[in-house]
Amino acid sequence: MTPGRRSSTFTRLLRHGFTDPSAAERLLDGPELAPVRNDPVLLEALGATADPDLALHGLVRLLEAQDGRTAHRELLDTLIAAKPLRDRLLGVLGASAALADHLARHPGDWRALVTYEPRDLHPGVEEFERGLAGATDPVSLRVAYRRCLLSIAARDVCGTTDVAETAAELADLATATLRAALALAQANAPEDAAACRLAVIAMGKCGGHELNYVSDVDVIFVAEAAEGATEAHALKSATRLASHLMRICSETTVEGSIWPVDANLRPEGRNGPLVRTLSSHLAYYQRWAKTWEFQALLKARPVAGDAELGRAYVDALEPMVWKAAERENFVADVQQMRRRVIANIPAAEIERELKLGPGGLRDVEFAVQLLQLVHGRTDQALRSGTTLDALQALAAGGYVGREDAARLDEAYRFLRSMEHRIQLYRLRRTHLVPTAEPDLRRLGRSLGLRTDPVADLNREWKRHTGVVRRLHEKLFYRPLLDAVAQLAPGEARLSPEAARERLVALGYADPAAALRHLEALASGVTRKAAIQRTLLPVLLGWFADSADPDAGLLNFRKVSDALGKTPWYLRLLRDEGAAAENLARVLSAGRLAPDLLMRAPEAVALLGDGDGGGLEPRGRAHLEQEILAAVGRAENAEQGVTAARGVRRRELFRTAAADIVGSYGTETSPAEADQGALVDRVGAAVSDLTAATLAGTLRAVVRDGWGDTLPTRFAIIGMGRFGGHELGYGSDADVVFVHEPQDGVDEHEAGAAANKVVAEMRRLLQLPSADPPLLIDADLRPEGKSGPLVRTLKSYEAYYRRWSLVWESQALLRAEPVAGDEELGRRFMELIDPLRYPRQGLGDEAVREIRRLKARMESERLPRGADPRLHTKLGPGGLSDVEWTVQLLQLRHGWHEPGLRTTRTREALAAARAAGLLSAEDAETLDEAWVLATRVRNAVMLVRGRAGDTFPTAPRELTAVGRYLGYGAGHAGDMLDAYRRTTRRARTVVEALFYGD
What is the C-alpha separation between 525 and 532, in angstroms, rounded? Predict the structure, then answer.
């Protein structure tokens, strides 16, 4: 061949899509294709395939395998003369290396593609049963199965059938195959066949008439005794038949396997019996079945064996399926299962997962099935096991917007087509998009993307997964808005009853009120209503993910009523990614944060990720600077303290919102894994805020009553949780007050001034207002409530020298200056250090006194009727146990171990561990219990809006506490068990360290 001739052929091959023209040219010039090498129809047909190189190679192998010259010539003549065969055969060879291998092993099977009658275009179960009828053993069944599969693949790659029709044909072929396998098993064991009636129920994609090329075929077996046989004998016989059927399909032979038969959807899964009677199935589903098991039954379809028994199985269980949506936590269970599926995908694969990844096939299937279960109770038109049919029925009934349904239908078809073509290549079970460029090129071309197959495929794939991601959850909520807004006359829409059903299924306790709120928010043609209609489908999903969706929606309406005409508010929610989700989490997590927000709704700006300051807590110096500046601008003390309290309310909201978002997590950021970090952030933020508020209040009172200079130096010493930087949302400010007369000022005058300052501070911080009060508690002062409210430094010195008790030394472990005269505060610390860190440690009598005090406190202060095991403060292993244990170590060893000289419990515990005063395991046990108990207290305040030391008893409030702590709906019992377990371990450590010798 001349160089010019070679160059011309080479160029033609490139133009027809060959990637290795040199190899293709050698094959075309070879003996197998010699008679037709110059025929233009062959090259055109090869160029039309997904992979021309693969198709040409497969064709040459098929020709080489022909038995003799006559068969070889027959194939070539038919190939050139019959366009249907040419398109089908080369189309399959260019898309599936596995079917090319089959044809090379069984070279006569190409004739299965010759016929082109109308009845061949859409075969059903009967046609496939005829195709398998000659199979007499597992090997011949595999050969016959592949021959039938060859015809399905040919229709698929040539576009004769669409993806839904292909999936239905694959399911029909699976049905015929199960029947053939059962017949082989029965023929092999006629005694077993005579002893029982066995029905095979298809589940999953086979049951739904939407099977993949390579997929597990999910089944459930149900059996009854034949006449004259006992139930026990019949079940054993049926189990042997079912096991044999599974092996016939699943085992690898010289012709490979067909597909695995998976019976794990049966009651009790792989731990349960393979075969049950119908009554046994019913008993299980009536008593033990979980929500996902009813969801799976949506696709149950009798396919093989005793048809009457199979129908009886479906008829008996169907009513239970359509009552599943009435189960408690129904939607939460289904959504949690979906999240768990995603969580189990390896991180390296999640972006390539067609089926299980975000925006994948499973998202569409879950959403459709959820809506079917909610509305199929009352609308039988929705009871289809096939995803696309069900989606169409949902749209026709107004349960899903028509445009949304059309876009999801398109996306689902594209993703299923990708899945089919990926599996067809090697006939392997996979849902991962390949990474190699040749594979992507073949995949893209097989889907009709010929200009730039790889780039076009990636773009279309991402576009469709993006559509699914945006729409799959909105499917629930957008029709609710369409039903109340009524902006598109003539469109099918949810009836009031269907809207109510959907809201109840989503966890709304008062669907009528929810619909009223939606109508108020979404109706009308204003810009506000239009933006809220866009936002609400997403917000409603986040509300439904909370413990109290009703409260979330009501609170959103309140915020929108207050801020809806403010341009920045709707822009914030629409344009700032985090703001809308943060707001939804905050509004539905409990009472405290929404109450704080409603008093000044403009604080919603903090929830954005722009210039509003975000949710990062502000430091004490920043807060103090802002509050003192506000006090300086005020006309009097009352105005100044009002300004300080306003800052405090805003910053409490910031802290609570950050805590909620960190505890719940968001779609882009998982929940904070370090529970201790969450506790420390709240404790530090609230303590800093309280200190800054007291500093501002002190400045306001002094300036109003005395001008620039008070007659006495004055300092506020934080005590308890305040001094320990461990305040919770509902904590009082435990303090003691110390003063020292200015030079030349009479002590009586100085004392009167100091007392007046304290009285005025307490009054102003508790005045009724829109801002939460700050209660000052000075009961930890010398002599407690019986002692003077304010003392001079000398008075403290005299008292501590003569009268100090061991409990007061213990209380002083948490003392830290928080406001007022810094020098006076420092001198107070110098005064008390020898008391709280005694040089000789504690004597035995002092230790016994601390233990007596602890025991008396537990017995006297625990509320009557409270469960001690669930009391976070005084219960075994709770806050008091851990703190007193740590404080006893500080009193005993603080003088010699500088690390113990801290007011913070967790820091002291870590220092004690570092000093070898307790084991790392014991320290971790105590730390875990203290953090958990603190988290529970914070949760109770966030949920109920008032402080509490025990878990709430109201189910919804208990669920909300659980959500804050990371427990899904329906797992409150697990939360309480975990709390008891954690504190029980801590109590064991406390008994050894605190009460031991």
Answer: 11
